[in-house]
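Continuing the series of single-chain predictions for the mutant panel. This is the parent chain; the variants come on the following pages.
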Amino acid sequence: MKLPIFSSIEVTDFSKEGLVEAFIKCQLGDYPLYLYLESRDKKETLSILETVYEIITDMNINIRFPYPFYVVSPALDHYEGLLIVNNTSQLPRHFVKRIKRLKNREMTLLNKTKLMLDKLKNHDIEMELDKMKARSYQNKELFNITKENNFYQKVLESIRMLNG
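Parent structure:
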């Protein structure tokens, strides 16, 4: 298994078949990848992004887990369902590393990571993300309630101290 560092997807044909072939060749979802769309006009970029989104949903690939997939496009800042950045310097630095020879211990850890990657692919990631969102909403509600309760306790303590 190679190191999980960002690689560019080389695409010459932006038709649906050409993109599917490029995604399969690059093992989309197994490594952090980005698709660089050169200076194209906004309309052409939108049509390519629609095709890319359709392919990713057909292939049942999550663009965030286990490894991210970004589209680098100077023409657009946002597209629903895809991670868009304006240039490669905006890609997360976590996956931008120099390639070097790995030591035995690092290779062992990388192989363990590969096993965990396979286990993660067996889970329904969208369902887990929905659960996480629901839990985070509940945690925010709890925080707001306890913050209000804490405020009232401080007011009560200050009133008691004034009354003696």
